[in-house]
Write a structure and sequence with these properties.
The complex is a heterodimer of chains A (367) and B (413).
Chain A (H helix, E strand, L loop, with lengths): L11 H18 L1 H9 L3 H23 L7 H43 L6 H44 L17 H11 L7 H6 L6 H29 L11 H7 L14 H28 L8 H12 L5 H34 L7
Helix pairs in contact in A: 1-5, 1-8, 1-10, 2-3, 2-8, 3-6, 3-8, 4-5, 4-10, 4-11, 4-12, 5-8, 5-10, 5-11
Chain B lengths: L1 H17 L11 E12 L2 E9 L1 H4 L12 E2 L12 E8 L2 H11 L3 E3 L5 E5 H6 L2 H9 L8 E5 L3 H7 L8 H9 L12 H9 L5 E8 L28 E10 L2 E6 L1 H11 L5 E6 L7 E18 L5 E14 L2 H35 L7 H4 L6 H7 L1 H5 L3 E12 L7
Parallel strand pairs in B: 1-5, 1-6, 3-4, 6-7, 7-8, 13-14
Antiparallel strand pairs in B: 1-2, 2-4, 8-9, 9-10, 11-12, 12-13
The chains are: A mainly alpha (367), B alpha/beta (413).
Chain lengths: 367, 413
């Protein structure tokens, strides 16, 4: 059974926007600092290697996907193992999505509170974010994706501006010693960095909404390549402006880079650009997460009243998000959970697709 | 219809809650700090905050006579700049001092416009690493805030600084410390200082501030000799002086260098602006040659070998214009001879600068370490090499190329 498509037909642009934001939101928050902490100034190599490995993984998934046109992972699971496997896959995908959404909700509220001069309690910020999420979720997948199409180009343009404007602070000597904390660390961290790409799940959920197989292939290609390039540029920019060991200590790397930009004597607070970028990016990510959790629940339970799930899932995000005692602890929990998230959202769906592929390989293509 | 009404009510509720004044920050309710100084007071520190007086700056009624600074004890300070006021609080910590200062004021202290962080000599000798980390941790301070060491008390400097050509104190500090055209002092922002404190390959240098003291300083220097902060007799209303540079190692003050040293530092690091440079005449005793020098291209620093005795090289290319040259020098040496004379003189001076800073402070102020670390594949090897130790045994090889391209508007010396 394919998901109810209504009249939604996303093109290449919308689909690519969703993938770009889903993949770069973690870079805005703390990935460059984390990579620098683990590999020193060779963090850019890790971003490059893991990015290339991710592209290979996406190519593999897209090859598998040729057998399942217009189907998302829940539909494929149902076809392979019936209702039991469908629910199994749905639960194992929903839980990590809620968890990631919860952590992003907490971090976005806390960081907004931290970097702005206003002393608004972070919980109040989270409530305001929650209201926006509910409003978008009621508009469904179309609302969330169309918002991406509008705001992601603005976010990307702002990030490019930050990187270009910080060029004058680049120091090539920051790249040396070339292998940072050592070749072994670079290889080890590159392998573990792939685990952070659990947002790849959105590729497996978006397919039924895209116009055609050809458009989907192109959108995934553009989105993923662009996201990897942006990620590499941000990490490289951070390494070039911030020398090790300090590069492993600074909170919110993109914000820190934007703080050093000075465009003449009159433009000395370019970091202000980071507030809307970070707020928009995290909000888009949260709305997307919320929408797809509701969508999966609706599809798995085959109900017409899927919107009833909006408030309970958001409540679950709030409860989980505010469980960790501090922002740092929330980030640590998120980092430690990344292997489990990767297994649930990437490894498991790939396994399901492989089995489904084997089962269907003698069958003609479903057109 | 009901849904629309509900949506409208919800929007009105949100709008009403966001429009509250609970978290408002009115400009008129803020005290804008433009400089912050730290002095040593026994076991504690004295934090001096210089506030701008916006009404006075804008020419409003808040100006008037010098209001002076006030300390927590209620003492009237002697701020010479009527556009600012200085408040000093003694405490164990910077931020508790600021809280105490805020209690003393009728307004909330805003630190986002602080342009200068001034550490007194005593504080710098004890170490400034902890303070720098505190400033960097706080989102209230910009990483582009300028930093300096004061040979006098930081509080005194801030009270005395009286720019006669600039009304806005924040602009004054920005222009003075951003080093746009100043070859006699380095420029160091909070962020650069924070990085260099732990960088294993580049020393920390800060500009030096002091009060010009003509009465006690009988041997006041002239500009071209090279002088230390406070030594130059400039006259005028502003008795505050910023010149020369302070060399720190591991966050502690090691050496104070003169303006001449700062000039050579700029030549080696590629930060040299246009400068009038004096070379002693070789043909006429007591006479000198004046050249207007600019950086021809970026200096090439390098570490040729990184063994027990690292071999470090520097190649400096300068473009020159003859401003003054005795006829005998000009006629006998010609342009080529003058190029050679200037090159060898500058080479000698640069080598002597490098040896002097190496021996006196043991700090790699020029940043040769950045090039030495390129010989290592990872941080482990670089850390084990111990650059700080090896740098003390380094041998320098300096090449200076002066290329006189212009002779001015008259064909003679």
């Amino acid at each position: 059974m394919t998901v109810n498509k209504r009249i939604i037909n996303f093109g290449k642009y919308e689909t690519a926007s969703v993938l770009v934001n889903a993949l770069i939101v973690k870079v805005l928050l703390g990935l460059p600092q984390l990579l620098c902490k683990q590999t020193g100034n060779a963090a850019w190599m890790v971003a490059l290697i893991s990015g290339l490995a991710f592209l290979v993984l996406v190519l593999f998934i897209m090859r598998l996907y040729k057998r399942f046109p217009n189907k998302n992972i829940i539909t494929i699971s149902e076809e392979l193992g019936g209702s039991a496997l469908k629910w199994f896959a749905a639960v194992l995908i929903i839980l990590p999505l809620i968890f990631k959404g919860a952590i992003t909700l907490r971090l976005s509220a806390e960081t907004i509170n931290l970097i702005t001069p206003y002393r608004i309690p972070s919980f109040l910020t989270a409530v305001l974010v929650g209201i926006v999420i509910i409003a978008v979720a009621y508009k469904g997948t179309e609302g969330a994706v169309r918002l991406h199409a509008v705001f992601v180009p603005v976010i990307v343009a702002a990030l490019i501006l930050v990187i270009i404007a910080s060029c004058s602070s680049f120091r090539l000597s920051n790249l040396f010693p070339l292998w940072g904390l050592g070749e072994k660390e670079v290889i080890k961290t590159s392998a573990s960095a792939i685990l952070m790409y659990s947002d790849l799940i959105y590729i497996l959920l978006l397919y039924p909404y895209v116009k055609s197989e050809k458009v989907f292939g192109r959108a995934v290609g553009w989105g993923v390549v662009l996201a990897v390039i942006i990620q590499l540029a941000i990490v490289l920019g951070y390494v070039l402006t911030t020398q090790y060991p300090e590069s492993g200590e600074l909170f919110m790397p993109v914000y820190q880079v934007s703080r050093i930009i000075r465009l003449g004597d009159n433009s000395q607070s370019i970091e202000a650009i980071f507030y809307p970028v970070w707020i928009s990016s995290s909000l888009l990510y949260l709305t997307l997460t919320q929408t797809f959790v509701v969508e999966i629940l609706g599809q798995a339970s085959k109900t017409k009243y899927e919107k009833l799930f909006i408030v309970p899932t958001l409540a679950a995000m709030f409860v989980i998000g505010y469980m960790p005692k501090s922002v740092t602890y929330a980030m640590q929990v998120s980092q430690k959970a990344s292997p489990i998230l990767f297994i649930c959202t990437v490894a498991l769906p790939i396994l399901i697709m492989i089995f489904a592929y084997i089962k269907n390989r003698r069958m003609p293509y479903d057109t | 219809m009901i849904r629309r009404l509900f949506a409208a009510a919800l929007i009105a509720l949100i709008a009403a809650s966001l429009g509250g004044c609970r978290y408002s920050h009115e400009i008129t309710e803020m005290a804008y700090a433009v400089a912050l100084g730290i002095d040593k007071e026994g076991d504690d520190i004295a934090v001096s905050v210089q506030f701008a007086k916006p009404l006075s700056i804008s020419g409003g009624s808040g100006g008037g006579e010098s209001s002076g600074g006030s300390s927590q004890e209620g003492e009237e300070g002697g701020a010479k700049n009527k556009n600012t006021t200085v408040l000093t609080v003694k405490s164990k910590d910077i931020f508790t001092a600021l809280t105490a200062a805020e209690n003393n004021l009728s307004k909330e202290i805003n630190l986002s416009h602080v342009k200068l962080l001034l550490f007194s000599k005593d504080i710098a000798q004890d170490g400034i690493s902890d303070y720098v980390k505190q400033f960097m941790k706080s989102s209230q301070f910009s990483p582009n805030t300028y930093t300096a060491v004061s040979l006098c008390k930081a509080e005194e400097y801030m009270k005395t600084a009286n720019p006669s050509l600039e009304i806005n104190p924040a602009k004054y500090y920005t222009l003075l410390f951003s080093n746009n055209d100043n070859n006699y002092m380095p420029s160091a922002t909070l962020r650069e200082l924070y990085f260099n404190l732990s960088a294993n390959g580049e020393g920390e240098v800060l500009p030096v501030a002091n009060l010009s003291n003509d009465e006690s300083n009988e041997e006041s220097k002239s500009g071209e000799d090279g002088y230390y902060a406070g030594e130059l007799s400039v006259g005028g209303e502003n008795e505050a002086d910023v010149s020369g540079m302070a060399v720190l190692s591991g966050g502690r003050l090691k050496q104070i260098l003169s303006t001449k040293d700062a000039l050579y530092y700029h030549m080696l690091t590629g930060k040299l602006r246009e400068i009038y440079f004096i070379i002693p005449s070789v043909k006429e005793e007591g006479q000198h040659i004046t050249l207007r020098l600019t950086q021809g291209k970026k200096p090439e620093l390098g570490a040729e070998e990184v063994g027990e005795n690292p071999k470090l090289s520097a190649k400096v290319c300068l473009n020159g214009e003859i401003v003054k040259c005795p006829d005998s020098d000009f006629n006998e040496l010609g342009i080529d001879g003058l190029n050679e004379l200037a090159s060898s003189y500058i080479k000698e001076q640069l080598e002597s600068f490098l040896e002097y800073t190496k021996n006196a402070s043991g700090t790699d102020v020029t940043g040769f370490g950045k090039f030495a670390k390129m010989h290592f594949s990872d941080w482990c090897g670089w850390s084990l090499y111990n650059w700080q130790d090896k740098f003390m045994r380094a041998e320098f090889s300096v090449t200076a190329n002066v290329n006189i391209t212009r002779e001015g508007l008259v064909y003679s010396g």
